[in-house]
Structures
1.
Amino acid sequence: MNTRHSAPLVLLAGLMGSILAAETRTLPPGVQVTPDGSWAPERTPFTNGYSAVFTVLNTQTSTVTFTLTRYSSANITTTGQSHDFVTLAPSASINVTVYYNVGAAGSGWVQLYAEGGTGLDSGIWNVPVGTNGFVTPDGQTATARITQTGGYTETFTITNWNTGTLTYSLTCSSTANISCTGVSPVRVSVAAGAQTTVVAAYNVVSAGTGTLRVTATTGSATDSGSYSVPVNNPTAGAPLVDASPMYGHFSQAMARCAVSCFAATYAQSIVPYFSLDAPRSVTLAYHGDRVDPRPFIHVNVRPDSTYGQWPTEYRFQVRVNSVFRKFRNGEDTLRFSYPGNFWARLGGQLDTVFSTGVYPMDIVVTAKYPSGTITNSWSTKLVVVNENASSVARGWKLAWIQQVNVQGDGSALIIEGDGSAVYFAKVGSIFVRPAGEFSQLLNVQPGGGDRLDAELSGFDQGGLQQLRPDDQSTGPLQHQRFGRVRREQPSHASEGPSQQYDLAQLRRQWPDFDSGSDEPRDRHRRECEQAPHHHHGPR
């Protein structure tokens, strides 16, 4: 969608340069130059080789020679014209071409004057230069998706056609059968003439063609780009799979749990010491779900009501790293009696203990009919946090220390001190936050001026400390620990501090944090320190 900013239509009358409004056209009769304010296609800034065609008509009763003069706005440079003089019989006309190059973004125009005998007139072409379309693509067709699935992304390009650096605020929207879950990043600064990419994440619902749109705003200028997303039903007879129960799998926030998700938890702090007139202490935290974790996998399923027959049972399988995994009952296929023509929840607990990391996973659901079976599957990721190899003890962590697991594809799993975990997928150079996650993970360059708090208990004050990879890790991932973070209070927050984590060259940033607040704070540390010490102990 383009937002067009039009320039005023200006007429320069005669050699004295007096200005007349285009709408009045109080000019001497005898010649007519057209068009009067037509729009040329949008031009890319600082490009060459364009032309504008004008028609000059002699409306006098005798043959007249007309002098042709061209003018242009400041951001357009005319390079020539096909005629400097034309001689026209009464009622005769001729086309005159003006050639031009364009410069900086803005609303431009090209004008041609004709003067001869008793006649004087001008025509004008409006030329938009990079004022629209700084978000692309516009209507490109995305890969077809299957109904009731998600975790998809599309990439948009933001181009700054201006002469100075601009900061763009980004939002995403979608039509009824598509749900945009967020755009990453939410704000970007782009140098003059440069471009950057952003990623919009989305889920799909019902069949049909939907639209995914990203809108960028800078100052008073707004533009949006879009993808057309075809959403198809699965193979006829295959069960419809709603993957939404697994969407929260990528953001495992322990603070959302009721009764600690019925896991055994415990926190123990040392006696506080004082520095800078404030108490400091170290807290150890235990979470039972991070010891020998066996993940639960869930989806919603309903039959294809248009198939002409109903299944007799559903079959449920989970494939991780291309291998079908066994459930706690020892089988790799769970069978469920057909419950009826409505959504039903299928699920099972895997009997495999994985190391901390993110693994490719396929959820396979099969409908069994008297005539055979028809299968539908959804590909996603399995996120696992396993503290069996913790350097403190099984299931124990320092409560206010984060760690990052960088995956083989460059994506990152951030693990909080309370056992929470957030998975940031990576598309190109951009980390994509999961649905419902407000922080974003950014690439930062060493020496880029990112400041850390001056003091955190138990660690050096020399900045970020990256320890050696954990030799106990058995997973195929780069496992790193980091001893220092930066946390700052957002100006708008009322429920707790926002946090920014400097993790080597990764920075996790919460939106709109107050850069003037330097006091070390941590929500997870505070929750652990305030937790009653009569919680269930470790098992």
Note: The first helix runs from residue 523 to 530.
2.
Amino acid sequence: MKLSSFLTPLRLLPVLAAALLTIAPNTASAAVTVFNFTYSGALFGNTAVATGKISIDTALLPNPGTTGFDVPLSPIVTDLSLTVSGARSGNGTFGLADFEGWLWDTGGQTLDLTTQLVDQISDGDFNLFNFSSSHAPAAYGPLLLRADAGHSDTMRLTSFAPDSASVAPEPSRALLLAAGLTGMMLRRRRK
């Protein structure tokens, strides 16, 4: 075997190292999942709707279990954005700074966090608690929010599901891809 044929694969080591370094951040943040949620006032005869996204570190989330009233919402909730529209008052966009706490209660059930959660919750709750100085919507009952700090239209949680774009690739798949690309490069160099 020639020394040059042995050295050619060694030249590809930086490429493989770069691929592995690209994968490493995904493994550290793999537990954070973005969920899309919707509250609707239709059940109560109003046109209020609240839509939003919440980023949750699912490694810290009790499932089954209950957590909540965390002040601040972190470290479990890493980001939150909620927009209310169609309400008599309290329309607008609200974020983490508008809420002092939240409630996560699985009702004793283990939830499948990869699919629609509303259909899985029978006795549980997901809710947000606004700061008294904020006009953000406020918890009103299980799975219920009221716009304008609890003084306007009532809305019920109708959807709570993971955002498909927030699902990080599994490290094993990314490693397989890196190995495959390296193999293709080695094969191409031999020809």
Note: Confidence is low (pLDDT under 50) at residues 15-29, 169-173.
3.
Amino acid sequence: MTSVRYGRTLSAVAVAAALCSRSAPGQSVSRGSVETIAIRAHEGTTLSFDLSPDGRSIVFDLLGALWELPSAGGVARPLTNAVRDTAEDLDPSYSPDGGRIVFRAERRGRTGLWLLEPGGAPLQLTQLPNPDGYEGNAAWSPDGKTIAYARLVPPDSVVLRWRSRLARIDLATREVYELPVAESVGPNLRDPAFEPGGARLVVVAGVAPAPAGGRIWMVESGSGRATPLAPATTGALAPAFSPDGRRLAFFAPDSGGRTQLWVLSLDSPGATAVRLTNQTDVTATRVRWTPDGRRLVYSADGRLWRIAATGGPPAEIPFTVRLAFERPKRSLPAARFPEPGTAQSVRAFMGLAISPDAHNVAMLALGKLWVMPVGGMPRAIADVPLSAHHLAWSADGATLAWSAGPWQEQDLFATEIASGSTRRITALPGREEYPSYSSDGRHLAFLYQPSEDTTILRVVDPQVRELSDAAQGSSLAAENGADVSWTPDADGLLVVSGGFDPNDSTRGTIIRLSGERRTLARMPDSPLFLRWTANAIVFVRHARLWMAPFDSTGMRGPAEPLGA
């Protein structure tokens, strides 16, 4: 991600806020009045770039857009429009003929690799199947027909951790297939780069897009046979062949742990790499050789640089980026402090649930249980404790269940919407939370914690009162922190656990009321508010709503974002 520096770095979050054209709460917009926001930048935090094959132009990313400038430096011209397209365009790479650019981006919620051709709009090549995934570090084959790239593969029933693999896309057919690499290289691969001619390529044994590098390997394009080119402790990133294929430039830490630019001769087996740079903040995004093989272009200290392939002082490639756009002019209202003792409107809730027919929303807020028609006004139907939370509708829409009580002593309660009367469902020692009614109305499931380190999934009659017998109903073992939802046919529960630790993948288990358990082969990573409909699951991830085809075996295809 790139951002601007004005002495200190202007974060991408601040840029995104400046680009927003909607009014924030508490701000007024003068109708018909606009202001122009102008940004001028000479630096970026993490510049990803590429040098055109003829050496005349540089493309780079900044402020969420792609820019092009003469290789000697100057004023950059925009190639994409991040403001208009609601986009973040990153990591551009020229095709061998210099006429096309591949880059990774999120554009209007669509994330993956994109292709930019002269005079055309960006064309999406791939779509991330998982919102936590990654596809990038793209490298063109010398003939310009295919693109190799690194992609993160989510955990599955065989491999329980994320891993970084290499894929290749055929631009004519859009077919994507895994690049063959010998197993001896290891489970994680990144940073592919083709040698001139395309018979071989180098890869790094490491996880993309992590900042740590790995060992460089030479791989035969067809067979995948691999030979190491550097020691296992090199920690290399972003290797690049010289135009004649006899040298290899790459980034790696120096003795002080600072990333620097190195060059390795491939003519002499066992040769030692030579360090070219000695800068404080070298950015290991990409290094490029000039067409004559005499110089290298790279990014460091927020700027672009050129250095001789034999070493020496680097020379800066200066650039200027100018971005201007209009937005409604905002003015902050005068601060107003209420008089002591006067009632004030507030907004907050401890529970939220939509009715089965999607016509009403229930809320727990300010010590009351509220029901609000969609688009209407809320009405309080019952008083509840301030600790009330975890709200759920019954299948017929007549009852709302919720949990309340002191810490580790919460019980379940049910309120009839028509009368506002409330009854106590459970009175077990310990904690009962997360009520969930089955779609046929015959069962109420909840999570029961008799102690802090024990979780039991209980299923009872929804009409039960003052349940104090731990043996009443069905009891099924569950993991702490599990999320539970009913299967569409109401004969079992989908239990989702794990996924909130990098080393703990998301697990899905269907537990039938008969006690039968089935471990699912594929689950989305760390889904929030997951619900299973007839043929799909819907969940929230990264502040977006996603849908994925789903059945009793797990996900049957990639998740797709819903909405813009």
Note: The longest strand covers residues 28-41.
4.
Amino acid sequence: MSIIANPARGFTLIELLVVMVIAAVMLSIAVANVAPDSRALLRAEAERLATGFRQAQDEALLTGVTLGWQGDPAGYRFVRRARGGRWHPLEEGVAEGGGRRLPAPVQILAVEVGGVNVEPGGLVVLPPTASQPPVRVVLEAQGVRAGVEIAGTAKVVFMNGW
């Protein structure tokens, strides 16, 4: 009986290195696609806020009811003036009436009405008329800023060489 030597089984060092490099490249691509892009997130939140202001302006004009907006660094909400002058969160109608918490790292940096700073949590009144002082809300995410300007219509302006 003859004995045949079995060749060594397993992978060579080169094969293992090639597999590790391929796995590392695939992992880096997956992480890049899954990690949130702060600029894209900032753009989406600025557009959402501008849309909310547009809807609030339209609703105030159509219903003849005074609406308001309150913001702090972490989020904002739209409110409606009830009889007796009290402000209540909107339950339906205007987008995010009950309140919107901004996703990290987006935050509200500043609010101005007619060039005057509004303190965090302060009320911005949206009257049921076509004329109102210009409102500017500045959002920031990791050093990049976007301004939502409301003067007639709401538009988004990107800053810092966007």
Note: The longest helix spans residues 38-63.
